[in-house]
Every structure is written in C-alpha cells, then in structure tokens.
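Recap from last week: sequence in, structure out.
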Amino acid sequence: MKTVLRTLLYLALIVWLGGEIFFPVVAAVTFTTLQPQTHLAGTIVGQLLRILHGMGLVSGMVALALLALAPAWGMYKPRSVLLPMALVVLMIGATVYAQFGIIPAMERDRIAAGGAIDTSDTTSPNTIHFNRLHNRSEHVEMVILLMGLVTVVLVARAESVKS
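Predicted structure tokens:
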C-alpha cells in the first residue's frame, strides 16, 4: 500500500512539474509556428496556461493530501514532510495568483488596448501594464517550477530517512 501511495505522490508531482517544464517549449513553438499571427498564438498559449494551472491545482491538492497523510500511514516521519507540504502550499498559492490574479488582469489590459496587444500602441498604459504582467507571470511560473524541484528533492530525501 505504501508503494501505491508513494507512486501517487510522485505522479502528482511529475504531472505538475512536467507541465511546468514543457509549457515554455509549447509556447515557443506556438509563437514560432504562428509568427505573423501573434494574437492567435497568444490566445492558444493563454488557453494552455489555464489548463496547466488546472492540472497544477489538482496535482497540488493530491500531493498535499498524500504528504499530510503519509506520517499516519508510516510512509515518512512527520517532520520530514513539513517543508515539502509548505512548498506545495506556496506552489498552489502561486498558481492561484497566476490563474485568478494575473491572467484576468492581462485579459482586461488586452481588451482595453483594443483586443490585440501586438497591434496596440507600445506606449499605451494598457500595453505597458500587460507586458509587466506577462513578465510577472513568467517569473511566477519559474518560481513554481523551482519550488517543485526542491519539493521532489525533499520528498526523495524523506525516503532515505528511516520511518
């Protein structure tokens, strides 16, 4: 049973981190392939980002639940899961912020800029704010990925600690 639960924990982390690692590749290919149609590429990438966030939230909740229950099931020592749990909570929080804070604000800026950010005036306050939010979004995703990698290391380390 412990093996099944550990497998589920690792799968939850793999799904989330795999998406975080693969997403920039998909975004780059989308923008390269649709080079003259950056608005269309942005629309596609925005939808994919929403899917990534949904996957992250589900995976995060599964990982958090398994980490919380792991000591009771004799999988890990209680202290060994505290930091991974805190990191998963921070990752979930960052994902919620990106999904429900940054993306809606970017969408408002895009609409206020005339519907397509790539054809709007680059000195427009809406365009400038959109670009700031875009950079923030990239940084938030990078922080999620880094925290996830640290979480994997900490969970792997907890495996080596005798129960």
